[in-house]
Predict the structure.
Amino acid sequence: MNIPFTTNPRPDTGVYNAKLGIWLFLASEVMLFGALFSSYILIRVGAPEVGENAWPLGSDILSVPVAFTNTMVLITSSITMVMAWASLAMKKFDKYKMFMGITIALGLTFLVIKGFEYNSKFEHHLFPSTSNFMAIYFTITGLHVLHVIGGLIVNFYLWIPGAKMWESDPERFTNRIEVAGLYWHFVDLVWIFLFPVLYLL
Amino acid sequence: MSHSAEEVQKHVKVYITVFAALMVLTGVTVGASYLHLGSTAMNITLALIIAGIKGTLVAGYFMHLFTEKAIINWTLALTVVFFIVLLLVPILTELDTISLI
Amino acid sequence: MDASVKEKSSHDDHSHHEEAFIWKYVFSIDHKVIGIQYGVTALLFLFFGFTLMMLMRWQLAYPGEAIPVISGLFSETTMPDGIMLPEFYNSLGAMHGTIMVFLAVVPLVVGAFGNYLVPLQVGAIDMAFPKLNMASYWVYFVGGIVMLVGFWMPGGAANSGWTSYPPLSNIATTGQTVWLLGMVFLITSSLLGSMNIIVTIVQLRAEGLTWMKLPFFTWAQLVTSFLLLLAFPPLEAAGVLQLMDRLTGSSFFMPSGLVVSGEVLDIAGGGSPLLWQHLFWFLAHPEVYVLILPALGIIAEVIANNTRKPLWGYKSMVYATIFLGFISFTVWAHHMFLTGMGTAINAFFQTTTMIISIPSVIILTALMISLWGGSIRFNSAMLFACAFLPMFGIGGLTGLPLGLTASDIHLHDTYYVIGHFHYVVAPGTIFAIFAGIYYWYPKVTGRAMNEMLGKIHFWLSLIFINGIFFPMFIQGLAGVSRRLYDGGASYAHAQDYLYLNEFMSISAWLLALAQIPFIINFFISWKSGQKAGDNHWDATTLEWSATTSPPLGHGNFEVVPTVYRGPYEYSVPGKDKDFTPQNEA
Ligand code: HEM
Ligand SMILES: [Cu+2]
């Protein structure tokens, strides 16, 4: 008794189950971040033009070089993720191990840098209660960090314990990497929008 | 999609080009934020256009959307529609400050 | 002992011995067991939510009088000397709404009915992701427990209404934080569940089961799942923002210069209370269609089967449902006409609200016309289905004056609103749930429920439920506000309508008694009901025609069916029996 189309695509839709599943999940994620983005616009537009409650310029408060580095880190991790999948598709398991390892390392780097960044904000007594700008900054980046952590856990599982599947069912394992990759790229994609919106404008 | 080894080999070249483009565009984003285009609105628009291009590259190539099956693209089209509706939230709240007629 | 259980389960992919109890009934990954788990848990929550409301009804009927008999059960902080405190009344109201919507009705129609029936109706051996399915149930369970924990928090459970409007909810007692955490669990559970249902319908349809051959119930589940998938995340976002406000002191929903108890709050300010309302109703309006669409699906199945003829206008019903799904995302601000959003927006949402009534009317009309000329079997399921039609009709029609800004100015926040949505949800969705239980009970248990008890249950419920909700329209039109702790006793304009309070309350308690035949029936029939065949109602859809009752353990079908025909081929001319199953060549 096996559920059909876990590995091979269903002929009329052309996709396997998990592929449709992850895209539906990402669709809901779009709505989640979309709602936060909407809230950001609403609160920003409602802020007074001048005075101490005026909306600040992100680059006056936050560190652009740090965020710039982090953007690079995350984009690089996206390409290594896609290479990890491509290596499996080319049946090169060793290369997969290497690229996945790099992806995880880059993800961790992102978190460490982010940690330092948060810390320096706290040291300057900048908290969510300080202003709505700081509040939205902490909320959105915090939620993004949670997504990165989630992705790291999945990637780590697929890197070591879950990689056994390569022996028993290589195609399904390749699919898993593709699905994990889709999620990871999405997390990258969110950051691509967050970076200019929060740090530069 | 079934991916033969040679096909994937070709993809890899594309991935690397896309990666380079993303790096460059990140630089451009930062650079553009130092331009003074007259108003914040203009700067925001420009930044969002660049981010949009980068996002399209990631979604289109890394996430294979350019060659993805119709069912996935339709699901996302649906999501985009509702996403746009969601963006009505801030617009609507400000609407009474803009006169329609 | 423990080790041997684990040992067994890790091998049971290949061996066919009996699974241990815990894997078979507790952490099962069989969609049928999960469906039953959802059903039982949600029925308990339904009962609990109902109890909260019965307490409120005492206070409304006899404001300030001590509750007899059971007053000893409550603490001094909720009911000193049996007299309900206003704060406790508020908690009851907020928790009644939350529990009924998020913990009872949605888990019943989607979690229980959807889970159990969708794979069977599409001819699948299980959901697409069985482990995710299990996770979704347990996340729901934890969410429910978290919600209940609120009652033991200092200050009691959440007390800012099920809508949790800030700034009030931002400064409310700890129960509100617990409420938000509970919501995060419930939303996660819904997301997992809806993904699963969509993938199952799209990917696991049996051979030959094309879109226009899907039973209407499955269509309704598909659209509902999309609503859950795309409408819930904004509420999750709003929940996160409110948690930030409450826990870190941010000001997303707090305007500048807010004065509480005579003092200006020391906050950054600059937030917008309206933002919450937008995000909340962005979910909550589609949510009401989540409550009603699966109910319509159940009713459609029951009506087609018991009139012994095809549904009238099946295709237009399907298209109307899809259209309804779309439009339901564009009407949310009709809950906010009185917030001063501005006339232009009001006009926009008033228009979309009028438009959305069109597909609803299409579906309802198609169902009514389906009755025409049928040789109707009036069993308990069908009686509930027949009553559903006019009751849902009343609920829908009374919504129109609410959707028009001019009349809504008068009606907003009165008992008229309570009457309106309860007609949709109680004699609407709840009746559909009863219809569904009577109809599918033989499939799930292999035995039919008792018809006599079913009919008593039906007639008494129909009478008393109208006794509760109809007078609400009268009070509402007279301007009695929906949130009054004393039911209007201290308001001059309400004096002439106070006598209705006692009438409604007594109806509510009698309605509770009217459920006794159902509860007895439900348990007795499980073991000693009349034995039902595999296809007890001579139905055409796959869950009846291709499985045993109850369906086989994990795997559902002896032979995975192939589909040759549409879902409702009843009384096809020239056939020797009056139904032709979908899997009959
Ligand atoms: C059938 C018996 C029921 C009775 C007698 C009943 C009675 C009531 C009453 C008296 C209120 C008013 C609370 C107030 O004054 O604020 C109320 C509120 C509410 N009810 Fe029910 N109810 C019933 C079933 C349901 C069901 C099945 C649902 C599920 C969807 C539901 C959903 C709600 C909601 C969401 C509210 C909250 C309204 C608000 O405070 O904004 N009720 N109910
Ligand atoms: Cu509504």
